Structure formats: C-alpha cells, structure tokens
Amino acid sequence: MSIELTINERPYIVDVAPDTPLLWVLRDVIGLTGTKYGCGIAQCGACTVHVGKDAVRSCITAVGDVAKPVTTIEGLDAGGNHPVQRAWRDAHVPQCGYCQAGQIMQAAALLAETKNPSHQQISDAMSGNICRCGCYQRIQSAVCIASRGV
Amino acid sequence: MPHGIVNDPHVFVSIDPSGIVSITAHRSEMGTGIRTSLPMVVADELKADWSKVRIVQALGDEPRYGNQNTDGSRSMRHFFQPMRQVGAAMRQMLEQATATQWGVSLSEVQATNHEVIHRPTGRKFGYGELARAAMDLPTPPVESLKFKPENAFRYIGHSNIPIYDLFDITVGKAQYGYDIRLPGMKYAVIARPPVVGGRIRSFDATDALKVPGVEKVLELKVSRAPPAAYSPLGGIAVVATNTWAAIKGREALKLDWEDGENGGYDSAGYRRQMAERANKPGRVERNQGDFDKAFAAASKVLSAEYYVPHLAQAAMEPLVATATIRNGECEVWAPLQDPFGAREAFAKLLELPIEKVKVNVTLLGGGFGRKCQSDFAQEAVLLSKALDGAAVKLAWTREDDLHHGFYHTVTYSRLDAGLDPSGKVIAWRHRSVAPTLFANFKPDPKREQSIELGLGLADIALDVPNVRVETGEAAALTRIGWFRSVNNIPHAFAVQSFIAELAHALGSDPKDFLLEIIGPPRKLELEKLGLTDPLWNYGDPYSTYPIDTGRLANVVRLAALRANWGRSLSKGSGLGIAAQRSFLSYVATVVEVSVDGQGKLTIPRVETAIDCGFAVNPERIRSQIEGAAVMGLSNFIGEISFAKGRAEQGNFDNYPVARIDNAPTNVRVHIVPNGSDIPAGGVGEPGVPPFLPALCNAIFAATGKRIRSLPAGDQIRV
C-alpha cells in the first residue's frame, strides 16, 4: 500500500503495510538510520522522532497513522547546529552515542515547549529515554545549556 | 594476551601528501572513548595537529595490530606506552627524512606542530611534504626513541580532545552495527530455543510465509559440541525484506521446542541450593593463618549472607551483524569487542582459511562484555552461507537480548568474622558460591576459577591475620558471560557491606573502620596470602601492579574528604562508603542517599576517587566513573531470573535500568594525580564495584535497614 510521508521536509511515497512502525520505514525502507531501535515497546526512547512538534516513539507509531511531517535527527538542523546538538557537544554528553539521537530529539521537543525547564521538568521529560552508559548528568547539563540558546 | 603488542608506526600511521595523518584505532569503541584516546596518544608524541588527524578503525587482524579483544579494562593499560612509541618513532622518521633531504645534521632539525624545522635557517617542511620519504624509512629501534617530557604533552592528560565521533553522533551519522546497509541485503531474525541446550522438535512456517515481506524460513543447524564456547544456539531463521517483516514472520511461526537438560533451571530453587552450599565447607582458595582456631577463640563473631542475581548487559544497541560470502570470501560488519576471536570462529564455521574472512568493526552501541561473545555474528555468517552467500543482516530484538544472554553470574556469599576483646578482626572467612563463566570452555568446573577468584575474592587486602576464602559448588545452567566488572560486583558487594556491618557492630565509624581493616600502607606479599592458585592479577605482572594498600587507603580518604564525611545530615539521609581494587586501579565511592517518609530513595550526591595510575584522558575517565554510578544503580534494581529454564525478563518493562529520574546525576570524580611513570590501570570497569555496597551502606546509615539480597525489589522504592 502506498503511503505518503513528509520526512525532514522531503516528500516520500513508501509501499508498506500501514501497521508497519515508522521506525522500520525510516531505517529499512528510506535508509535514515540515525533513528535507533532499542526496545520496540516505547520503553527506551532510542527511536524518538518528531511528528509535527511532538516527540513520539517511532517504534510503536504505525506509519499509516502519521498525519504530520516527520523530523528525524538527520533533519533537526541542516548543519547539525540546533542548540541542543551544540549543547550536547559542549557538554561532551555521549559515551557510546547510540541512544543520543533519541535523547536529542526528546530534549529539542521539551525546549520547544518549555523554554527554561527546571531540573525536575528535565527529569520528567527525559525519563523515557534510557542511556546504559549513564550520561544522565551531562544530559541534565546539556539541556540547561541548550535552554539558553533556543 | 594473544598476539601481544605491536608498536610499529608503519602499521598504525600513514601520512598523505596533503598532511592528513591517518591513525589506526585497533580497539573497539563501545563508549569508553578508546578509539579517540589511543590515537590521541600517538598524535601527541608525533607532534601532530589534531585537526589534521583522521582515525581509521582497524579490521579484525591481530597478527597485524596486536591484541584487539577490548575487554578487561586493558586498552590504555596495555597500549599507552606502545602508542607513545608509535608516535615518537614516526616523529623521528619525519625528522630523519628532513635531515636527509637537506643534507643537514639530525640534531639541527626538530618536529613541532605538524612540521619539521631546520633550526639554524628556520626552513620548514610540512608533514605532508615529508610523508613519502619518512614512511619509507625503517622503524627506529625502541631504545633510540626520545619521548616527550610530561610537561610537553599537548593532548595527553589535557582533556582537550573531544571524542572523534562526537559530531556524527549528534547528527545521526555515526554508524553502528545496526546501521549497516548493503545493496540487496536481506533482514533476518531467529527464533532460538528458550532454554540453553534445547532444540527444535518441529516447526510450521505456513503462516510466517504469508506475512508480506517474508521470503524464507529455514532451520539454522549448529554444532554445540562441547566446549560450546560462543557458538550460537541454533533455531529457526526468518528472512525478509525488512526487519519488521522478519519480526512479524517470527511471531507467526508455530514452534515445538525440546528443552533439554537445563529445562529445570529455577532461580528460587537454585538460590536455596546455593545457600546450603555457602553454609558448608567448600574448596579452600586462600588459607592465611588459622581461621578455625582464631574463630573459635574470638570473643565476638558476626556472620552475614549476600545474594546478587544474574544481570543482563542490555546494551542500548541490541546484538546485530551483517555478513556476505562472495567468491569464497566472507565479509562481516558487526559491533564486536573481540573482532579477531570472532574472525577465527567464522573461518572455522565456514571451513575457510582465515585470510578469506574479513571483519569490519562498527561502532558498538554499548558492549559491557556482551559483545565479547561472537555468537550473534556467527549466526549471520551461517545464515549468509545458507542463503548462498547473500548479504544478510541478522538482528536481535530486545527480547532476544534478554532471553538469550551470556549473563552475569549469580552469587551467594557467606561471610564470618571473629573479633578479639579489643574489637580487632582476627578471623575472616568468605564463602562464595557462583557458577563459572569457564563452563563455556571446559567441562563445568562448577565453581569460580582462577580469573574469577582474582576479581575481588581471593585478592582482597585485609589487615587480618587469619583469612580463609572458600568456593562452593554451583553448576552453570545457563550461559554465563562477561559483564562490566564481572565477579567484582558480587564480591565487593559482600565484602564491603560486611565491613560496614562489622563497623556498626563495633560502634565504629565506617570510614575509620574501613581504613583500619585495610591496614597500614604496604604492598601485599603474595606468598603470605596462602593462595591455593597463583594470583591472576588481571593477567599482568605483580611486580608492576602489586596490591598496594597505601593507594587503596588513599582513595578512601580522598573520597571521604570530598564528601565531607562526618557532616551532620538530616533525618532519612545517610552516607555510605566502599572501596575496591579492581582492574589494577583503586576506587573509593561515597554515596549520599535520602529516603523519604514513603520509603522512596534518592541519591543527591556521589563522590568517587580513582587512582588509575597515569591519567591519559581525564575527561573520559570522569565520564566512565559518572556512568559507573548509573550502572551501579541499575545493578541494584535489575534481575534476570529463570523459571523452567527460561529467562523471565524480556524488555525494559520488567528488566528495569536506571533512568534520569532515579539515577545519580551529581557524581563528582576525583582523579589521583600520578606521573607517567606510574603505569596506567583500568578505567572502564573499576568504577562499578564499589557503588553497590556504598549505596547499601548509605541506605543503612539513613534508615537502619540492611539490604543483603538483590534486587532491591520491595525493600526500598527506587
């Protein structure tokens, strides 16, 4: 079945079953591998993308239900210089880096809605994103740094 | 260490005419920063400008690069000096090439920032201009190398070099194993026997083949003749045009498994058995003085039992590998900690000479020991073979990861101490019961082996005259594997908790008592420890890396000082301390906890002191120690349990790990300053072991509740 999508401001037509999770369409069909698989049941946040302005878990989002433009890590900023991306580099957040696309997309959605989040608000918003390397304290710092630049 | 060390600049460095210096990283990057830190060492001695350095990831090729098995916190320990030699040698080759070119004395030329200057005239050559001539020179002998003095280091010790992949990670371009895409590639998942040693009785693929995108279902037959080592479990593979179709196809399979001899593995029953064994004499592994006599004469005795369950590494990137076989040559792309060990396994499976197998190492989305075992990549190779060499990506789901692990072992410990009337510990006995990882490699020895005894069991430093360490029997009924810090986790949990329990029984301050039982500064004399087997000492010479109680006590004092130990805390708050020598480094941690009226735990602050010898990349040492506290909390709440031989947890909904809202996010790291003459110790693992006991000691200080059995479960809300 043909499904029309807008991803990172580009139109796509994909031929997949409408219940296919957006994650696997992005990764396997379109080839945008920046969005990661971590759990498949919306428990870890590695697959976070924006649908419209909302951060969603693409692993449980059926592609047939996607009605708004999708933004992935590759499209967050043309030069990779979204304030959250810059803050992530300034704070040297990543260790292995695998979860960071999801973390960055989640943080960007938080800051789009809440300009100067408190420590608690950051914790609440980011608590669905797991990092096994344990970069959480730098994520806290980076979101604060980014909040000054959004 | 297989294939040892290579320090030849011709192997690790190449310079192109434009001056770009390519440095090969031969160890796997799983988050420690090693892929940056070792080339950084080369670049510093080479006097290269970091902005002109490119990093090339080595293929799995140990005869060429030396040992590549990235485990045991060994990379910096073993390769700091060799990488200095690589850099210094190439720098001297550049200087020699310049002197020859100009016909001047070698003493008149000097390399500086990416160029060589003729000092009398000020003439300069860029590294690119000299590249060909320099690289054609023979490698100077190590004895002729002149190393930078420490005060001339520009990168080493300076924390001014971000990890090489930082930008790519933040824009989604960094390539992990899961991200490999080849033209025409198939996607596959495997339904594996739910019990280790089980096999398929029959299966029906009719419905699976009806799933759109599913192309083929086939049985993956494997040999698991002992020793099974890291061989795959076998099962039924579903091959499809994308990962999702393969997953859906697998769900539609009808499978009838035969469980085999491990079908009775049940964690509750197993634990009872371990407890019985821990309460009976075991094999004596260390016998210093006369425990029985001293214990009988003690005026006061104390005992406690501790339990740490199986844990799963649960790296954020589940296991995955891509393989293809063309014209009798196999190529694999995978996140492997041990790429050459894997390559040897692939060659054996395919009955190909090793030269016909090429192994590309991607970034690892975490490893924590799981990706040392190449079972998942062997599956991809077997599958490609079954598909006539087609390119196939074999993906594991999170459920696969937790159901088919090489798990952290499970450990039951019993400790007994006897005190004299003055409150001095005169007798100490530690009985440890844990299935061994070495059951993968030989007939199950059913008790901890030499390496495991050396992970904080037989090698502990105690100022106690009579010490006995025993192991009890425990068969491995699942696959036991490498897990960040390995047996140091349960060993340190038991020992460091028990020390705090003794302090409490004596009414002593836990930090003072810990220092007292470590005793005066000394290097332990091995022959006086009464060890049954020689000390493993992490595979390194004891003369270089002795057990140094002065360094251990020093980190205890440093962590306590930074934590302002002894300060008054509000009701429901407490400090706990623990220390461990592991991977040839010394770490002490003070955890501060607060437990509210509802029994909810928070960890407002952690102070950790580490003495890892010379600190090559302090910024990445800090990140490892910050992460170790987070993993320490995960080890407090996680458990893989078995029922009917099956792992009961399958995803993060029932295998909880620390998240940003419960993890420590105020971890302060204090690195003991050392000169480069103090050999580097490990960093990736040593931060983990002290955290659990320090946490439980803090909970005791805050609440009076002693947690001896993990996971925390309903003992406290996390």
Q: What are the salient characteristics of this protein?
A:
heterodimer, A: 150 residues, alpha+beta, Ubiquitin-like (UB roll), DNA polymerase, domain 1, 2 domains, three-stranded antiparallel sheet, 5 helices, globular, B: 718 residues, Aldehyde Oxidoreductase, domain 4, 3 domains, seven-stranded mixed sheet, five-stranded mixed sheet, 28% helix, 22% strand, oxidoreductase activity (chain B), Isoquinoline 1-oxidoreductase, beta subunit (chain B), AldOxase/xan_DH_Mopterin-bd_sf (chain B), AldOxase/xan_DH_MoCoBD1 (chain B)
End-to-end distance of chain A: 39 Å
Whole-number mean pLDDT of chain A: 97
CATH superfamily of the largest domain in chain A: Beta-grasp domain
- Major sheet description of chain B: 7 strands, mixed
Strand order of the largest sheet of chain A: 4-3-5
Q: Helix count of chain A?
A: 5
Number of extended strands of chain A: 5
Total E-strand runs of chain B: 26
CATH class of the largest domain in chain A equals Alpha Beta
Helix segment tally of chain B:
18
How would you sum up this structure, described in words?
The complex is a heterodimer of chains A (150) and B (718). In chain A, the strands form 2 sheets. A 3-stranded antiparallel β-sheet of chain A has the order 4-3-5, covered by helices on one side. Chain A has a two-stranded antiparallel sheet with strand order 1-2. Chain A is globular and about 45 Å long. The longest helix of chain A has 14 residues, at 100-113. Chain A has 2 domains: 2-71, Ubiquitin-like (UB roll), CATH 3.10.20.30; 83-147, [2Fe-2S]-binding domain (DNA polymerase, domain 1, Orthogonal Bundle). In chain A, 34% of the residues lie in helices and 15% in strands. By secondary structure, chain A is an alpha+beta fold. In chain A, a hairpin with a 2-residue loop joins strand 3 (48-51) and strand 4. Chain A starts with a strand and ends with a helix. Chain B is α+β, with helices and mostly antiparallel strands. Chain B has 3 domains: 9-171, Aldehyde oxidase/xanthine dehydrogenase, molybdopterin binding domain (Aldehyde Oxidoreductase, domain 4), CATH 3.30.365.10; 186-261 and 319-395, Aldehyde Oxidoreductase, domain 4 (2-Layer Sandwich), CATH 3.30.365.10; 267-312 and 406-703, 2-Layer Sandwich (Aldehyde Oxidoreductase, domain 4). Helix content of chain B is 28%, strand content 22%. Chain B has a 7-stranded mixed β-sheet, with helices on both faces. In chain B, strands 12-20-19-18-13 form a 5-stranded mixed β-sheet, with helices on both faces. In chain B, strand 2 (21-25), helix 2 and strand 3 (53-57) form a beta-alpha-beta unit. Chain B is globular. In chain B, 58% of the residues are buried. The mean pLDDT of chain B is 97. Chain B: One of its GO terms (molecular function) is oxidoreductase activity. Chain B: It comes from Bradyrhizobium shewense. Chain B: Pfam families: MoCoBD_1, MoCoBD_2.
